[in-house]
């Protein structure tokens, strides 16, 4: 949920939010979940970098001293001594996490490339299957939160391919690694303390808290601070289990969107055809106008038919690195982008949701 967020180019990674990739972490309802932290000094290079997610850094000078301070900070944050010892007793820094944190993006996709890879026929078919298999649950979630089931499924598909790729890293070790030596150590330390509180509350064991290299967890890829604010116990078993309970995972996605201002029975966007003279490089994406006003300005649906003559407000939504496709974004598109901020992510969620349904 990276706006909850790690750095992510607007359409950069092939799959925004994929558990095995750097992802943008969902934003908090009232404020971003991952505010940009102040830069930290670059530490001395480590001597071992490896592909295995469980291989530790060979030269981890200073890590034990870091752990002493971390244990004290966790206790001051209210985490029990038993949890501190159990979760941090044998933790070591992970070489693969540092490798991924340091790795520079290898290039970016155009909107059309990103759209076609994300909203693929395979993902659409898997989404339809996931929708059908969980229809009763999704309808129950919609009844409580008012959020469209197809959008819930689309976000689930975007984040973890419908729960099949939730990440293979031990979240405590990954966050401890980044809090010790990462580029945003202060941010990750806060996420680590939050993760320890989640374990202490009994929602998951330290061993069962698995996720991405950057700490995004479970089916919805919540960062720990997002979990504390927005995860729900939808199945009523006393635990908020976004790893093993589809009810809790999908209910938590819906709660996130509802708390972010989801408007029931409102659309997310409409692909549109601009009037003559439109310059995609000089677009005002901030101004909001009614659909009727956009129509008076010469805008039409993508197929050339008239826009609905309503007072529904919309703003221009232009994909990053688009060769011409443009949308009129409705309020729910802004809500989707609070889950993950890049415009291309929000538009891809909407397109996938339409195909899934």
List keywords for this structure.
357 residues; mainly alpha; 14 helices; 7 strands
Describe the secondary structure blueprint for this structure:
Layout: H1 63-76, H2 81-88, H3 95-102, H4 111-118, H5 121-133, H6 135-145, H7 149-160, E1 169-170, H8 171-181, H9 185-200, E2 210-211, H10 224-230, H11 246-259, E3 269-273, E4 289-290, H12 291-296, E5 300-301, E6 313-317, E7 327-329, H13 331-339, H14 343-356
Helix pairs in contact: 1-2, 3-8, 5-7, 6-11, 7-14, 8-9, 9-10, 13-14
How would you characterize this protein structure?
The protein has 357 residues and is mainly alpha-helical. It has helices at 63-76, 81-88, 95-102, 111-118, 121-133, 135-145, 149-160, 171-181, 185-200, 224-230, 246-259, 291-296, 331-339, 343-356; strands at residues 169-170, 210-211, 269-273, 289-290, 300-301, 313-317, 327-329. The strands form two sheets. A five-stranded antiparallel beta sheet has the order 4-6-7-3-5. A two-stranded antiparallel sheet has the order 1-2. Helix 6 (135-145) packs parallel to helix 11 and helix 8 runs antiparallel to helix 9. The longest helix is centred in the middle third of the chain and has 16 residues, at 185-200. The chain is globular, with a radius of gyration of 21 Å.
């Amino acid at each position: 949920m990276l706006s909850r967020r790690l750095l992510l180019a607007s359409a950069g990674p092939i799959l925004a939010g994929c558990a095995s990739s750097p992802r943008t972490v969902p934003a908090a309802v009232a404020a971003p979940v991952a505010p940009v932290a102040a830069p930290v000094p670059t530490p001395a290079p480590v001597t071992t970098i490896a592909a295995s997610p469980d291989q530790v850094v060979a030269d981890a000078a200073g890590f034990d001293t870091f752990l002493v301070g971390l244990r004290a900070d966790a206790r001051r944050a209210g985490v029990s001594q038993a949890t501190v010892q159990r979760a941090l007793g044998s933790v070591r820094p992970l070489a693969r996490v540092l490798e991924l944190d340091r790795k520079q993006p290898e290039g970016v996709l155009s909107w059309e490339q990103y759209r076609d890879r994300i909203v693929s026929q395979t993902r659409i078919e898997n989404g339809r299957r996931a929708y059908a298999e969980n229809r009763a649950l999704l309808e129950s979630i919609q009844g409580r939160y008012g959020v469209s089931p197809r959008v819930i499924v689309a976000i689930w598909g975007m984040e973890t391919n419908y729960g099949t790729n939730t990440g293979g890293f031990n979240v405590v070790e990954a966050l401890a690694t980044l809090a010790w030596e990462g580029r945003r150590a202060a941010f990750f330390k806060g996420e680590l303390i939050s993760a320890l509180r989640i374990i202490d509350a009994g929602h998951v064991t330290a061993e069962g808290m698995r996720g991405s290299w950057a700490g995004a967890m479970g089916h919805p890829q919540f960062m720990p601070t997002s979990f504390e604010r927005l995860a729900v116990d939808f199945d009523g078993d006393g635990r908020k289990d976004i790893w093993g309970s589809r009810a809790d995972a999908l209910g938590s996605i819906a709660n996130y969107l509802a708390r972010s201002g989801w408007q029931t029975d409102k659309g997310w966007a409409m692909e549109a055809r601009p009037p003559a003279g439109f310059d995609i490089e000089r677009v005002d994406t901030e101004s909001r106008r009614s659909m009727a006003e956009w129509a008076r300005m010469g805008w039409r649906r993508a197929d050339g038919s008239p826009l609905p003559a309503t007072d529904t407000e919309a703003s221009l939504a232009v994909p990053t690195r688009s060769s011409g496709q443009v949308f009129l974004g409705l309020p729910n598109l802004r809500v989707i982008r609070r889950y993950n901020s890049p415009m291309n992510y929000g538009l891809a969620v909407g397109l996938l949701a339409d195909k899934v349904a």
